[in-house]
Amino acid sequence: MSQETFKACAFYVLAAAIIVCSLTVNGLLAFLVSFRSPINPNFGRTTNERWKIEPPYPDDRLENIFWFVQVTDLHISEHVRPKIVPDLIEWCVQVHQVVKPQLILATGDLTDAKATDQVSSFQHKLEWERYNEARKSCYQRAALTSNEKLAPWIDIRGNHDSFDMDLQDANSLSVSWFTHNVASQPQNVSHLVIDKGFGRYSFIGVDFSPQPGPSRPLNFFGYYNQERDGDKLSEFVELESRSNLTFFFGHHTLNVVTSSEKFLATMKYGAVYLCGHLHALLNNTKSTLRLYGYHHLKQSSLLELELADFQGNRRFRIMAVDHDMLSFTDVSTNQWPVVVITCPKHAQYAIPEKERLERMRYSTHIRMLVFSPSSIKSVSISIRTRDSSNTIWEAEAVHSEGPLYVAKWDPALFETGLFIIHVIAEDSQGRKSEVEQPFSLDGSTEKLPFLSSLVIASDLTRSAKFLFWTAHFAILVLMFFLRFKTIAMKRLHLFNIPVVGNMLHKLWFYAQNGHLVKPFVLYQLLIAYAPWYIGALLSNRYAVVFVNGVLFMDGTFIPSGLNYVFGACHLLLFDIPIIYSISSALERSILRKSDLKLSCQHSSCEVVKYKVMMFIAFLMIIWQCHKSFELFLNYGILAICTNVVEFYCIFMYVYQFYFAFHL
Question: What pLDDT digit, counting tens, does each position of 387-437 carry?
Fold first, then answer.
């Protein structure tokens, strides 16, 4: 190779490396830019000057406050977990009798909609009837012991509630079961207002379930149809522009929703988005991590609060609005007493653009809601600085009215800095609850945990798309250079890099064999640009599945990031390990055939490593067969017959292993 050719190859390698590094950095920055940074100490004050820091201020009266309850991911099933329905009824009755909320929000996955095998999915009439009966039974029992008007139950669909369902099909039995058993009239965008004497508070629900709804797993990601729902959502947001606070709610976390910039621009008018969907991914009873995070949307912040499931963890949320400041706690059923500190509010969850945080500086009392089926025996309060364990202030809270407990304090003592308030509540049954949270009156705060912020603030659709295309082009470029530019790579000493050089050397054998590398390259091009398979995504509707979404036969296209996740995982966790295993087998066959028997090839250690690698490759092939069988259960025999990605690749790789072993 001439010096000019070598320089050209080196230039292309360097350019490719720069592009990949730039994309990686940009991806990381996209993650990090959404993380919550400390609030400007004067930001809240400046914002509240627009409101002139008007009274009322938090005092010892049960005024300018209300609260509501959220529950999610019930997964009422015909086949498993029979205790969910009686537990749901018992919990609901207790909520009405003890908490007495203004509203109960059920944010999706009301039913499980799975078959006995827990793989295939479709709607069950019995599950919807059990959900309806549980709700009615709860209200009937609660009404017997209460003279007050019971809180309305508002629900919205989750991805399980839309399995194998097309809401536009008026003759569908599943649609009929759904519409006759839910509490709320099915709508893509819904609207509810709680109008109190001290303010107006709006709740806007957005159903992100794909329409029509495929069977699992292709509706795990949500989709917001801007063309269909954009005008209605904008209308509701504009209508509630003068509301004290606007709450968005839905089932999917926003990181798995494929949406538009217009949607995000509309969401900035909300204070908080309440959802479920990810169950107890980071939000279980043994973990201090919670899936809470901020979305920065053009000089405004939206706080997203994911709630763990009722299905396995029996979790629910109590959220209070006290003098237009939001406070909440996530607890398990039968975990009493429950304490919600409302003033001073939690510093990590401050929304200075939406809340009247300055009112804390003019408050006369610490305020908290304490709920228990038994009478409250005592409520103790202590305060310390953020960096010290020494108590600097303590008091006993006294009962005001209803669930409100108060303690007189002087906010001037805590004017600057970050403090920790610690509350211990005990009821007459001897049950205790301890709550500790940071607060500040000058806007000081601390960042949310990195991992939870990363999960919530990231856009998984864009991230998966970036990862898929990066891996796709990287493997194709690598195969090209290994096949045609080997000398250039050797001059760059790439084969001399520890570990990497050995891997490249093995892959070189694969790339040099046309019987192996050509089908592999064609296979990668098919994954990226051709249909994956054709299947019955609904029981009566077929669709063509691509990497970027699903195209139904009537022309309806549903974009989805989930296929990018599948594609990236398939390439990184299956294709690359498999071709590396084939390359190792090919190398041994070539060396054995050429009598180039190096000592390292016969060491017992290398032999064991090789056999373990082949065994793992065998297990991966078996797992791929299992995945293909699941695809058959989900989408029918046609999905298998046309499946390029998961089915036909098995035959390709089995043949390549046979070729490598018998060369």
Answer: 888 899 999 999 999 999 999 999 999 999 999 999 999 999 999 999 999
DSSP alpha helices (H): ranges in 1-63? 3-32, 43-49
Contact 112, 77 (CB under 8 A): yes
Report which of 349, 545, 351 is spatially closest to residue 448, judged by C-alpha positions. Answer: 349
Question: 39-64+323-448 belongs to which homologous superfamily?
Answer: Immunoglobulins (2.60.40.10)
Q: CA gyration radius for the chain? A: 29
654-659, long-range: CB < 8 A, 24+ apart: 654/621, 656/516, 656/519, 656/520, 656/579, 656/582, 657/581, 657/582, 657/585, 657/617, 659/515, 659/516, 659/586
Residue with tokens 């990031």: 561
Alpha carbons 313 and 483: distance in angstroms, whole number: 54
CB-CB contact of 352 with 47 (8 Å):
yes
CA angle 542, 547, 551 (to 5 degrees): 30
Can you tell me the distance from the alpha carbon of 222 to that of 214, in angstroms, rounded to the nearest whole number? 11
pLDDT tens-digit profile of 429-467? 999 999 999 999 988 877 777 777 778 878 888 889 999
Closest CA to 212 of 550, 547, 531: 550
Q: What is the pTM of this model?
A: 0.87
Residues in the chain: 663
Burial 598-616 (b: 16+ CB within 10 A, else e): eeeeeeeeeeeebeeebee
* Secondary structure (3-state) at 345: coil
Spatial contact of 634 and 215, defined as CB atoms under 8 Å apart: yes
Domain borders along the chain are 39-64+323-448, 459-661
Helix runs in 352-408, H state only: none
Give the helix ranges, DSSP H, for 251-291. 261-267
Which two three-digit tokens encode residue 422? 């610690």
Axis-axis angle for helices 514-529, 649-661 (nearest 10): 170
For 390, the token pair is 């020494």
Dihedral, CA of residue 195, residue 197, residue 200 and residue 204, to nearest 10: -30
